[in-house]
Every structure is written in C-alpha cells, then in structure tokens.
Amino acid sequence: MGSEAGLFARQTETATIRSRRIFGLRPGEFLRKLLIEALLVLGAVAVLLPLVWMLSTSLKTMGQVGVYPIQWMPDPVMWSNYPEALSTIDFALYTWNTVKVTFAGMAGVLISCSLAAYGFSRFRAPGLNVMFLLLLSTIMLPSQVTLIPVYIMFSKLKWVDTLKPLIIPSFFGNPYDIFLLRQFFMTIPLEMDDAARIDGCNPLQTFWHVIVPMAKPALGTVAIFHFMYGWNDFFNPLIYLHHRENWTLALGLQGFRQVYSTDTNLLMAASFVAALPCILLFFFAQRRFIQGVVISGVKG
C-alpha cells in the first residue's frame, strides 16, 4: 500500500507540474523566451523602419513628404515616381557599370583569396606563419593611408577614370577574406588531400576537385560579402571615376541628389531601386550571412 501511495503521489505531482506549463514550457522559461522574442521583434522593427519609410516616401507626392504626423500609406499612390526618377539619370548605364565592377571584382576575390588561403592552410614552409601574421597586420592599415601612392600608381598606368582601379586590385586578394577562407580550409581533414595525392592529383587539382567543392559555404559567404561591398562602394568610385559615362550607381545617386535634392520622393524611388538587389540578396541568402559569422570564428 505504501508503494502504491507513493506512486500515486508522484503521478499527481507530475500532472500538476505539466498543468502549470505553457506551450510545454515552465512559466519562468516561457517568460524568458517571450522576452527574447519581444526584443528580437523590436530590433527587427527598428531595422526595417527606415526601409519602410523609404518605400512609403517613394510613392508619395511632394506635398505628402513633409506632412506631420508621417503618412505611412500614400494616398494617392504615385507609381509614376519610379519611371520619372529612373529617366532623370542614366540609370541603365550606371547599373551596368556597377554590375561589371561588382561581379568582376567578385571573381577576382574568389580566385585570389581562395588560392592564397589554400597555400596558408595546406602547405608547410619555414616562415609561413610569420607571413600570415604580416598579412593579417595589414587589416589594421586603413585604405586612406595608402590612397595617395595608390592613386599616383594608377595615374601612371593611365587607369584613372576607368573601371580598372575598381576591379584589378580584387585579383590580388584581401587579408580578411583570406583569413576567413583559411580558417574554413583548416577544418577540412588532411586525409582528403592524401587520398587525392594517392589518386595522382597535384596540389592544384586537389584544390579544384577536393577543397573547392567542400568549401562552397565559405566561398558563397565571401561572394555575398563582396557583392554587398562592391554594389554599395562610394569611396573608390568617387576617387577614381571622373566622367559620367564611367559612374556607378552610388555616384549616380549622389549626382541625382545634388540636382534634385528637393524632390525627396524621386530620390527615395531611385535609392530604393538601387538598394533592391542588396535587399533581395539579404532575404534570400541570410543563412550565408550567419554562416559568415560562424566560419570566421572556427578554430585553426
């Protein structure tokens, strides 16, 4: 009888605890998760609010732009702002220049950084770690420090006012992407290289047939990061591009702003179209962004 009473008491206690749970969680745990979710929602709203304001303003008339309190839903909706804004500047030419700079630079970064990272992660040579530390030390050197000598060099090469200064340097790698890829390559077992060597592969074949297929997440992350940088870059085009036929979208929007600074609705329409590729890329590839943070922190 005693054992049956104890069993009944334990069952009653378990049932009581379960009845107090909310969505399968204890009250304290539920409140903690609810607080975290609320903070995340508030953060998402704070991040999306400027984007929503830009989209809303791009569909307003000029009379609605300065109205207070803010009118979030335009009435009437001015879809004509978009063709008017895009026809005011040579949007197609600026977009084509931006596409060339972005994708050619992306190809250069992927080729140069992956090969350099492969060498640092798989080869062994005296002083290799010292060379890698020297490479990492250049991250601390701002690009503005080397701006004048680099500009003089490009001027001597007659590359100023062409797209070459925005593309060619990408084929010489950059320390951050080399570090990121090197960290990922070091997580790939060396036994994979040994197996490829037994099958008759040289180091370059091993890189292409073994490392690259296994490193697609890291390479995709680098490609996304460079796309965001190349598409939004304003500083380098401002320094090296002088004539309008070579301008990128960033410079085109700046020129639009200088001439039509009072037409806020048209400026927001042009800005939203220019930012649309990056917005879509973020929503469709946000897992890669998170992977980039994880990959850069792996041990090596």
From the alpha carbons, calculate the radius of gyration and give it in angstroms.
27 Å
What is the CATH-assigned architecture of the largest domain?
Orthogonal Bundle
CATH superfamily of the largest domain, by name, is: MetI-like
The domain count comes to 2
What's the number of extended β-strand segments? 0
The percentage of residues in β strands lies in: under 5%
Tags for this model:
MetI-like fold; 16 helices; globular; 300 residues
How do the helices and strands line up, and which of them pair or pack?
Elements: H1 2-20, H2 27-58, H3 62-65, H4 81-88, H5 91-122, H6 128-137, H7 147-156, H8 164-167, H9 175-185, H10 190-198, H11 203-214, H12 216-232, H13 235-240, H14 249-259, H15 264-284, H16 286-295
Descriptive overview:
- The chain has helices spanning 2-20, 27-58, 62-65, 81-88, 91-122, 128-137, 147-156, 164-167, 175-185, 190-198, 203-214, 216-232, 235-240, 249-259, 264-284, 286-295.
- The protein has 300 residues and is an all-alpha fold.
- The protein folds into two domains: 2-58; 84-295, MetI-like (MetI-like fold, Orthogonal Bundle), CATH 1.10.3720.
- Helix 2 crosses helix 15 and helix 5 packs across helix 9 (175-185).
- The chain is globular.
Give a quick rundown of the structure.
Helix 2 (27-58) crosses helix 15 (264-284), helix 12 crosses helix 16 (286-295) and helix 14 (249-259) runs antiparallel to helix 15. The chain contains 16 helices and no strands. By secondary structure, the protein is mostly helical.
